[in-house]
Every structure is written in structure tokens, then in C-alpha cells.
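Suppose you are handed a protein chain with no further information: no name, no annotation, nothing but its sequence. What can you learn? This example shows the usual starting point.
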Amino acid sequence: MSLSKALHVYHEALNKGDIQKAYRSILSFIFELRTELEQKYPEYAISQVYQGYMDMSYFAITPPELRAKKLKIALVYLHEANRFELWLSANNRKLQKEWIDVLNQVENLDYRVSELGVGIDSIVEYIVHVSPNFEAKESLKQSLAMNIDRFIKAMEGLINSEQRCEHA
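A reasonable first move is to predict its three-dimensional structure. Written in C-alpha cells, the prediction is:
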């Protein structure tokens, strides 16, 4: 599709108003969740929300134990797929590669280890919610918070056990 045709389709969709309403609702939800997590976990470093280009929106959650290892957790909403994922990410590509290499050696890992590539920022990815119900905001926030807690604990345990194995 040519750029002119794509822009025409884009403007027609915007004129209906549904895209703006949906996008604002999604981002409002993400901002609210971020604020609640920041209050619940004052010891965690929680980044600002990256709104994205209608591809993904996310914020990073960095517990002290992961911060010391230059790792973080990202709660990511993938707009086109309409799903929330949790990612273990690193502060840089070198560290990302090191952890992907280490975790690819782990047998029976309950999470998907990412492959290195352009535009891939995760080490581990976990799908939390597909087609989330934004109209049930409180329930969705509780579910995401519970999954974030579990994922953080699982990643801290995994990282710590792998570091012990490396130094054994």
C-alpha cells in the first residue's frame, strides 16, 4: 500500500474517533497501574511510561536485586496483538546476550528465552493477558500486579540460581 493510501485509511479511521478513544483508554490504564505499583513498591525503581508509536507501550519495574545486576522487568502492552507481556530485560545489549546464552542452557525453563535480533529488547518473555478486558479495570490491575509479583520472584530466583551455578 502506498503512503498516500495508508494516510487516507489512517485519516478515515481517526475521523471515526474509535482509535483515539481506545488508545487513550489503554494509556490511561497503564499510567494508573504504574502509579499504583509505584505506591505499592516504593523500593522499586519504576520508569516513566513509554507510549510508543501504537506498536507497544511499556514501563520498567526494577527491584533492587535486579538493579544490582543491571536487569529490569518491563510490563509491555503490544497494541497490534492486544496483549500484555512481562519481559526480563538488560541495561545493554552485551548483558542481554550474556543472559540469553546462559538461560538457553537451562532445562525445563517455564518461560520463553528471546533470540537476539534487531529490535529485540527482552531476555525472557511471558504472555500475561491476551485480549485484556479494560472495562474490568480493577480486576485487570489486580491480575497484572499478581503476575508481576510472580514474574519478579521467578526471575530473581532464576538469575540467582544461574549465578550460583556459574560460580560453583
